[in-house]
Amino acid sequence: PLGINMEMDNSYLQDRQKIIDKEYLTRIGGNLVLTHAEDKVNQILMAAKDREIKDSFYNGVPFPPNLHFFEAKPAIENSTVFQLIKKMPKGGALHLHDCSMTDLRWLVKTATYMDNCYMCYDQNKKINFHFFRSPPQQPGCPWHPVSFYRNQTANVSVFDDMLYQSMSLEVTDPQTSYPTLDAVWRKFEEVLMRANGLINYAPVFAAYYYQALKEFMEDNVQYIEVRALLPEVYDLDGKIYTPVQVMEIYRNTTVKFVQDNPTFTGAKVIKTNLRFKTPSIIKSDIIASAEMMSQFPDHFAGYDLVGQEDPGKPLLYYIDALLYPSSHQPPIYLPYFFHAGETDWEGTSTDYNLIDALLLNTTRIGHGYALPKHSEAMMMVQKQKVAIEVNPISNQVLKLVDDLRNHPAAILFEQGFPVVISADDPAVWGAKGLSYDFYEAFMGLAGRDADLKILKQLAMNSLTYSAMKTQEKAQALDMWNTKWQIFINSTLEE
Amino acid sequence: PLGINMEMDNSYLQDRQKIIDKEYLTRIGGNLVLTHAEDKVNQILMAAKDREIKDSFYNGVPFPPNLHFFEAKPAIENSTVFQLIKKMPKGGALHLHDCSMTDLRWLVKTATYMDNCYMCYDQNKKINFHFFRSPPQQPGCPWHPVSFYRNQTANVSVFDDMLYQSMSLEVTDPQTSYPTLDAVWRKFEEVLMRANGLINYAPVFAAYYYQALKEFMEDNVQYIEVRALLPEVYDLDGKIYTPVQVMEIYRNTTVKFVQDNPTFTGAKVIKTNLRFKTPSIIKSDIIASAEMMSQFPDHFAGYDLVGQEDPGKPLLYYIDALLYPSSHQPPIYLPYFFHAGETDWEGTSTDYNLIDALLLNTTRIGHGYALPKHSEAMMMVQKQKVAIEVNPISNQVLKLVDDLRNHPAAILFEQGFPVVISADDPAVWGAKGLSYDFYEAFMGLAGRDADLKILKQLAMNSLTYSAMKTQEKAQALDMWNTKWQIFINSTLEE
Ligand SMILES: [Zn+2]
Ligand SMILES: [Zn+2]
């Protein structure tokens, strides 16, 4: 909206442009050079982005990154930018959790329709799920086949929706339903635990994971890394799988999926445990994990601690266990991928997890939400090339930030930090794949003038900063390049 | 919550502490050394801060910086930290606006009880105020003396509360009442305009300003700088004051107040105009302002543009006018104090106001909310020692950010930027003086371990980065030192 006929001082305008260009160069993707074809796609992308931003900036249309994801989702799905992002090969999803990667509608349609699937209502009218050959007596929550309830209902799709809702955080009034961070975390843990009754049944477990790979592939993601508890998977005979056996399911399913889909690169598992366990449990777990590193050289990537970080034990609490591999003679190889700094609380134990994660030589940092408040840690991250796994929708739904334009990773974007975009627990908030988080990152965390370069760089980062070995990375990047060319060409053909 | 009996690696702990210490040093106030007495006060302060943070971090007590100010206010007033901050000499308030500095209860009690004070209800049942010897016919909004309505009411204090509410943004349900940033800005402009009907009456105008000085002094602020429109002040004879005459009111009232209160340092005016005016109006205003610089050498400080920044014209739109003083031969002296980057919109015209403000050699930046998203601008701010005027409550109430722990100035705090804390328009949201904003800055923007040093540095910054001349600054700092010693000693005596 510049006035015309101004006698503009040319040298002023030149100085100004120099600063703007200099800032642009330091951003993620700022020094990429686009090909002629990419440049054309960029024009299509930026025309759409500009239109969508202008609608909000000038015309008051609600801006999706300023809305809660539950309210923003329909507008996102209508967005041309989102449609382009969906088609774009996005590389890998490096921060996902085992029991919240797959569309819950698939879980309802599949698991709850299987034989031997039971449910019960406890005293609080909350649903539990479990598979049994024949269920035990449980007076507080008497088991019946899901089909028993489904057959009684007048409307099966209403019933199935209800099952879906029972495992989802989605509500129409998120601000009222989840007044505090603690409240949404309690509900989050509750819905995950409920879904686990279905997921941890061995036949479901493998199918659930296979379906996750399928959904990410359909969203043009070619590789994933899964934070996995390796939980107590069970079958009808009362067999409880050991962590190694669960790891075998992951490996075998991954191998099978890649056989079925040769353009998919693969997947690796990062073993996790809860940051509420005793130090001695964590120590044994670390030793067992180090063994799995050699047992599953192509599919096991390292170790992490999970669970709500503020009430959880800080990394320092486990320092003995966590230093064990590196202080062992000879050192034991176990890369770390710590969740750290997933907090609004500066100067607390959670916040200082960032320092410990870096001192413990973490390969990447999960969230790192508080990182920009730490100047030394920022320098260490740059120097040690530790990628930050940014999960925009997760941070919003789990109430670290409302307007995603206030997400601190905007500063990491601006300063060209090693960042990857991921989805954390997409199923629980009704997202799918990476595209929703890429959209929020591109429209909310990055500025109006951030373009195809940042998207391309973020996609490449997700392979470069993955846990893949050098050779695997090279192959993955080749595959990504092929997909990228197809994306560029097909976008121009439309 | 550390476990005990851990075999802790001492060198690990030392490395860790080194990083934490290094980060602490770079923060605002990080390299101050406290006296023995200050250290004791610091212990009292930090015991209170720790208690209040633990209440929220561990026990779920709502954390005031995480609440909307309207909901947080009672808890803030109950806070021991707040009580200490109130008693603390805070130096100067450098970012205030002429018509929203003084408690609206005072305005109601004073102005609306004066002779010749009229009000009317327009078609939308909205109140207008004006003083008249005898009011004109105005069918769309028929004037009656305020006393006429007040005499009809059953309960005078309910009536006076209603008058107060009509000029305030305060509501019990801010999220519902103000769903968008534009919505709260429309209401903001409406209530300011309503109050102006009272404030711009000459006898009220001087008294209102005198009362502002009094309230800031009572809040242990010794100096203020006022962004002033120098509006059309009027009297009963139909006289409209010129900007120079309004400036004379400010000068004379300041001189009077300092005579009455010799420990108060004084005040300066920054002339403002609206960022919706034509470039030629701004150019004449700049020329007139430069003249006032020499007419009022001790009380006129410079120039700024105000109004909602996103829909407003960018600085670049006025570049001809704004470059006029520096490009004139010989250069004309007119310091700038630009509002810039008061936005969540990265990469827009508002956002780039930051670059223009710096290129135009601004003395300070009002808000600079978007600054951490600009790496070059950050460097320029450090190099040119441009102070950033941070107004936490304003940014929250006017909907740039919800949880003040997400305020981007946290990063400026962390990196030791030249920051001052101010209050912007405290009257409109029911704050008073600087203490509420200092509390939010100390508890919300600064970390758990930020202590008396940051408060002391922020207070000193507010004099160092003021528009005072070198000699005035020295005197102001001497006075502040005296007040600070009294604060330290009296706190220890309690
Ligand atoms: Zn996670
Ligand atoms: Zn202001």
Give a brief description.
The structure is a homodimer of 494-residue chains. With 494 residues, chain A is an alpha/beta fold.
What does this structure look like?
The structure is a homodimer of 494-residue chains. Chain A has 494 residues and is of the alpha/beta class. Chain A has a domain of 284 residues: TIM Barrel (Alpha-Beta Barrel), CATH 3.20.20.140. Chain A is 50% helix and 11% strand. Chain A contains 20 helices and eleven strands. In chain A, the strands form three sheets. In chain A, strands 1-5-6-7 form a four-stranded parallel sheet. Chain A has a four-stranded parallel sheet with strand order 8-9-10-11. A three-stranded antiparallel sheet of chain A has the order 3-2-4. In chain A, strand 5, helix 11 and strand 6 form a beta-alpha-beta unit. In chain A, helix 2 crosses helix 20, helix 5 packs across helix 7 and helix 12 packs parallel to helix 13. The first copy, chain A, is globular. Bound molecules: zinc ion (2 copies). The site of one zinc ion has 5 residues of chain B, from strand 1.
Write the topology of this structure:
Two copies of one chain form a homodimer.
Chain A: H1 10-26, H2 36-57, H3 69-78, H4 80-87, E1 92-97, H5 104-110, E2 117-121, E3 127-131, E4 144-145, H6 146-152, H7 156-166, H8 174-177, H9 181-199, H10 202-218, E5 223-228, H11 243-260, E6 266-274, H12 279-295, E7 300-306, H13 319-327, E8 339-340, H14 349-359, E9 364-367, H15 375-384, E10 387-390, H16 392-397, H17 409-414, E11 419-421, H18 435-445, H19 452-464, H20 470-493
Parallel strand pairs in A: 1-5, 5-6, 6-7, 8-9, 9-10, 10-11
Antiparallel strand pairs in A: 2-3, 2-4
The structure holds zinc ion (ZN) (2 copies).
